Amino acid sequence: MRVYIHIPFCASKCPYCAFGSFTDFSLVRQYFDALNKDLNHQLKEFLGTKKHIKSIFFGGGTPSVVGVKFYEKIMDLLLSYCAKNAEITFEANPNSAKLEWLKSIKNLGANRISFGTQSFDEKKLEFLGRTHSSADTFKAIENALRAGFERINVDFIYGTKLDSKKLLSSELEGIKKLKNLGVKHISAYALTLEQNTPFYAHKNYAKEAPILANFMIKGLKSLGFLQYEISNFAQIGYECEHNLGYWMGDEYIGVGAFSVGCVGKTRLYAHSLIENYINEPLFRKSEYLSDDEWSDERLLLGLRSKLGVDEKYIKNKEILEFLEKDKKILRENGRVFNKNFLLADELACVLC
Ligand SMILES: C[S@@+](CC[C@H](N)C(=O)[O-])C[C@H]1O[C@@H](n2cnc3c(N)ncnc32)[C@H](O)[C@@H]1O
Ligand code: SF4
């Protein structure tokens, strides 16, 4: 079992982002009271007395904008259900995660930290509506290392209209410096224009986005970060255990407003308005996935990552044989592995 906990607060709202978050902090206390009730209820219902949480992910929003004292009760409770060496990640923003916050969250049991950096270029940071500088990122990494974190991820966005091979080369120079400091995981996301965001109406992506994607992926690989999913790169042994769990189809509970869980083949959606969640933290809308929907999901997630996909989820065996002959995929022990994650969507389309 895995646990996702959503913290829907951010210091400011980035114009490209569709994640559920608000800049009004007046309901933080009530939100955490509701979060505790929700978590207590779900742990009893889905875990009983078993200690088998393999990973926990506090995502957002920006978990680091909330004081550590709010996490104490939740972490106490979660740790009593954790398997040995469970991975516990907190997402953080370079300007809100100060040394004291990082030390205290580590003391509570966090063992992985993920910073939303997005870029080292000051113009691109401004364009993305970020409120930190590249110096803030280096300071935050230094602090995370001083606090004792060994597993650090840094998020980047590329493919915006400001990006070019030249700009990405300088991002890769910065990433090389992060690597020298001890960062072992990088997430590099191609910009998605999300509906209902200020970016959606504008052509804010680079015209040559596919070329830039190949360039960024090659650059990260040459720095020694192995691509284990379309947007995720790590040194061996530093992959994100929690995300691997999602892609393998493990069960997970979602706690908090906007959260989604999946138990068996049932998806569970919490309220997405904070006020509604505070009033009804246990409310869930459920959606049962049919066998076809489940198998399509396994196919797509497997083709986007190094995990590959069980052949039983592939309906079009004729195309499978053709793609194998054409060396687009690898077949081994009843599993199919994609050689180019950028083609995952197209391959999933023809194989389902
Ligand atoms: C929930 S945010 C986490 C971190 C924290 N809130 C921050 O931004 O510093 C997760 C990551 O998703 C990525 N992201 C968000 N919106 C995106 C978009 N429209 N296109 C591509 N990546 C996006 C960003 O890299 C971001 O750091
Ligand atoms: S990218 Fe991060 S900081 Fe920006 S709005 Fe989204 S969740 Fe908040």
UniProtKB/TrEMBL annotation:
Name the record gives this protein: Heme chaperone HemW
| Chief subcellular location | cytoplasm
Entry's family note: Belongs to the anaerobic coproporphyrinogen-III oxidase family. HemW subfamily.
Source organism of the structure? Campylobacter magnus
Q: Which NCBIfam families match?
A: hemN_rel
Q: Name one Pfam family in it.
A: Radical_SAM
Q: What PROSITE patterns has UniProt attached to this entry? A: RADICAL_SAM (PS51918)
Signal peptide positions are none
Per UniProt, subcellular location reads as:
Cytoplasm
Q: Which residues form a coiled coil?
A: none
Asked whether the UniProt record includes Metal-binding among its keywords, one would answer yes
